[in-house]
Automatic annotation (TrEMBL), chain B:
<keyword id="KW-0813">Transport</keyword>
<keyword id="KW-0067">ATP-binding</keyword>
<dbReference type="Pfam" id="PF00005">
    <property type="entry name" value="ABC_tran"/>
</dbReference>
<dbReference type="GO" id="GO:0016887">
    <property type="term" value="F:ATP hydrolysis activity"/>
</dbReference>
<dbReference type="InterPro" id="IPR027417">
    <property type="entry name" value="P-loop_NTPase"/>
</dbReference>
<protein>
    <submittedName>
        <fullName>ABC transporter ATP-binding protein</fullName>
    </submittedName>
</protein>
<dbReference type="InterPro" id="IPR003593">
    <property type="entry name" value="AAA+_ATPase"/>
</dbReference>
<dbReference type="InterPro" id="IPR003439">
    <property type="entry name" value="ABC_transporter-like_ATP-bd"/>
</dbReference>
<dbReference type="Pfam" id="PF13732">
    <property type="entry name" value="DrrA1-3_C"/>
</dbReference>
<feature type="domain" description="ABC transporter">
    <location>
        <begin position="4"/>
        <end position="234"/>
    </location>
</feature>
<dbReference type="InterPro" id="IPR025302">
    <property type="entry name" value="DrrA1/2-like_C"/>
</dbReference>
<keyword id="KW-0547">Nucleotide-binding</keyword>
<dbReference type="GO" id="GO:0005524">
    <property type="term" value="F:ATP binding"/>
</dbReference>
<dbReference type="InterPro" id="IPR017871">
    <property type="entry name" value="ABC_transporter-like_CS"/>
</dbReference>
Length: 386, 311
């Protein structure tokens, strides 16, 4: 039986990889998915904010100190300009992430304890994502200086004395940059989301070969030879496992080594989980083939089942942005349990604590395969042979 | 010795009986013709002999062994030439033959030798590296045969091997069938072309509604029909409406038109030749020749089943 299977596997692999399209479908597309997720999430990983400052308040001490304060912030690169219009143009063109406009009279208002928000504005087209950090720290600085101004009630000498003491920074913060891993997690989540979508379609395409063999009658010739139907189906499953394994290894290799996307999950754990999901994908594709009467109806079923389930389970965009009801539906889909497992591993949980997820993925693989086998066994369709 | 023996074979699909208590035997060295109109039960019987379908009742013995319990043995000794061309378009002719021969356990030098031999047998030895997509219909049919014989089966089942090909390829295939038979293969041959069956088969069975209704040599089958005759009338021009008028004449069983010859099967005891000729003249069909012949296999088939083989 093993010799028969090896003979069939050799033929299927040769025929598959003789076709250049197969290389693109099985390996090219998953890599494209990873690159796409890099493009989607890659920009957010750039840690330096480019801020332009237009100062209309002259050489006033407070406005100069405010500028120095911004310049002293971590991960901020400041560009000075006198032309507010040019500043806005640079922001629109993407040359700057945001701009700080210091209005005339900013220092005086601050000294009096009445800072005017209109005299210190942050401009950006990217929204709070880039302004929040600077705004929060700047507000702290302005708030402190304004408090001094308020307490000194317009007494310039008292203000200068207290401010000088404040400027000496008797209370210093010790700041330490913590590595931001959320971006890395998002990128991995999305890359794997695309990968498992392609794995599902790859498995379905490979299993569909059974129907294509029936349609071009070579199945009849195969079944009239000493090869058993069981050997034939098992050889198809073996080819499926082999190609999915290669697909996973290539995708993970490109992700980690070529594109330098570190998932934060050990390679062996990631491979094991993806391979387990591969078994569920093969089971599902067998189920589709068992119920389809032709390769065209199998393709229609594929699109009808695979695309919406991938969408619901968060393969195309993060599941947490979807409504609770959709997440509940996703619990009935194997893709959800794989992505959930990966997220748990990224959050520091060990593989041992993923018993439920692994069990559910096994259950999906077993249930799909058993239903397919039952259906195959009861199929007495004369059109298959006569 | 019987190569194939079928005993009380029945196949039901729900309530439909496709093969009804059929029994027959095929001896070693025969070219056995299996005739029947579409839906008569030929292909279902062949599928059961090839172990592609389970039997509902009855047994099939190949070389004395029941195929139900000796499936692998039976499959190893049978070669199937299916009606539809069953080859891989993305594999060369050599790869196709080699792959199918490999399914029977052939490997290495023996596999190479048998593959080359099979390609030579069907006249495709110089096309081994070519892909079937570049082949004519006749060449594909020949490759279809090569894939079935490379493992040297004892019994070859050929299901309509000459459908839709040019006369030259048809002659090549018919000669190949004879040559295979001379080499010791027993052959079961089904065809819609009665003249082919008449030309090459040593014994013939006529199947209708899942039953064998007549069996024997072509002479034995023709002898069954004593009350029928064939009238062939050569005409200058054809007109389908004239054929309909001929069918109304008493005694006429069937009328068909082939290459400017009106072929009429008629009851032997009724003398209706004058009426037939008069009707053609009335329909302004110019007659060139009139021949009365002893019934051929086509007439036998028609008389026994009430329909043409191509129906």
């Amino acid at each position: 039986m093993l010799k028969d299977m090896a003979w069939l596997i050799r033929k299927t692999l040769t025929n598959t990889f003789r076709n250049k399209r197969s290389w693109i479908v099985y390996f090219g597309l998953p890599i494209c998915g990873i690159v796409l997720s890099m493009l989607l999430y890659g920009n957010a990983s750039n840690g330096t904010l480019r801020i332009g400052i237009a100062n209309h308040d002259g050489d006033q001490t407070l406005s100069q100190d405010a500028i120095r304060f911004v310049q002293s912030l971590n991960n901020v690169k400041v560009t000075m300009t006198d032309d507010e219009q040019a500043l806005r143009s640079d922001i629109a063109a993407g040359k700057l992430d945001s701009g700080l406009v210091i209005g005339e009279g900013f220092s005086d208002a601050l000294k009096n304890g009445n800072p005017d928000p209109e005299q210190l504005t942050l401009v950006s087209v990217k929204g709070a994502q880039v302004t929040a950090y600077v705004k929060a720290l700047l507000q702290g600085y302005v708030g402190n200086v304004a408090a001094i101004g308020k307490q000194t009630h317009g007494d310039s000498a008292a203000f200068d004395a207290i401010y000088a003491a404040y400027a000496k920074k008797p209370f210093q913060f010790h700041t330490e940059a913590v590595k931001d891993t959320s971006n890395k997690k998002d990128m991995t989540y999305q890359s794997i989301g695309y990968l498992i979508t392609f794995m599902l379609f790859s498995a379905a395409n490979l299993t569909e070969l059974i129907l294509k063999e029936k349609e071009n009658r070579t199945f009849l010739r195969l079944m009239s030879s000493p090869i058993s139907a069981r050997s034939y189906v098992l050889s198809n499953v073996a080819v499926n496992i082999l190609i999915l394994l290669m697909q996973i290894v290539v995708a993970l290799f490109v992700m980690k080594t070529v594109l330098k996307v570190d998932s934060g999950i050990p390679f062996a754990q990631m491979l094991s989980l993806l391979l387990l999901f591969g078994l569920a994908a093969i089971g599902l594709s067998l189920l589709i083939v068992a119920f389809a009467r032709s390769s065209s109806s199998a393709s229609a079923l594929q699109n009808l089942i695979l695309t919406p389930t991938c969408l619901l389970s968060g393969c195309f965009f993060p599941a947490n942005i979807m409504p609770e009801s959709v997440n509940k539906i996703a619990s009935f889909l194997p893709q959800h349990w794989l992505l959930d497992s990966l997220q748990k591993l990224q959050n520091g949980e060990g593989l041992g604590s993923l018993g439920l997820n692994v069990g559910i993925l096994f259950a999906f693989a077993a249930a799909f395969s058993l239903i397919a086998i039952y259906r195959f066994a009861r199929n007495n369709d004369t059109k298959s042979f006569v | 010795m019987n190569v194939l023996e079928i005993r009380n074979l029945t196949k039901k699909f729900d309530d439909f009986v496709a093969v009804d208590n059929m029994s027959l035997s095929v001896s070693e060295g025969e070219i056995f013709g299996f005739l029947g109109a579409n839906g008569a039960g030929k292909s279902t019987t062949i599928s059961m002999v090839a172990s592609l379908l389970r039997t509902t009742k009855g047994e099939i013995l190949l070389l004395g062994k029941n195929i139900a319990s000796h499936g692998k043995f039976a499959k190893s000794n049978i070669g199937i030439v299916p009606q539809d061309i069953a080859i891989y378009e993305n594999m060369t002719a050599y790869e196709n033959v080699s792959f199918f021969a490999g399914l029977y356990g052939l490997r290495g030098a023996l596999l190479k030798e048998r593959t080359i031999e099979a390609l030579e047998f069907v006249g495709l030895s110089d096309k081994g590296k070519a892909y079937p997509s570049t082949f004519s219909g006749g060449m594909k049919r020949r490759l279809n045969i090569a894939c079935a014989i490379a493992h040297r089966p004892k019994l070859i089942i050929m299901d309509e091997p000459t459908v839709g090909i040019d006369p030259q390829s048809r002659n090549y295939i018919l000669n190949s069938v004879r040559k295979l038979n001379e080499m010791g293969c027993t052959i079961i041959y089904t065809s819609h072309y009665m003249e082919e069956v008449e030309e090459i088969c040593t014994r013939i069975a006529i199947v209708d509604h899942g039953k064998i209704i007549a069996e024997g040599t072509k002479e034995q089958l023709k002898a069954i029909i004593t009350d029928a005759k064939d009238i062939w009338i050569g005409v200058k021009s054809e007109r389908p409406s004239a054929i309909d008028n001929l069918k109304q004449i008493p005694g006429v069983i069937s009328v068909r038109l082939e290459d400017n010859v009106v072929k009429i099967a008629s009851k032997g005891e009724i003398n209706n030749l004058n009426q037939i000729v008069q009707q053609l003249i009335k329909d302004q069909i110019e007659i060139r020749s009139v021949e009365e012949q002893a019934p051929n296999l086509e007439t036998v088939f028609l008389t026994l089943t009430g329909r043409n083989l191509r129906d």
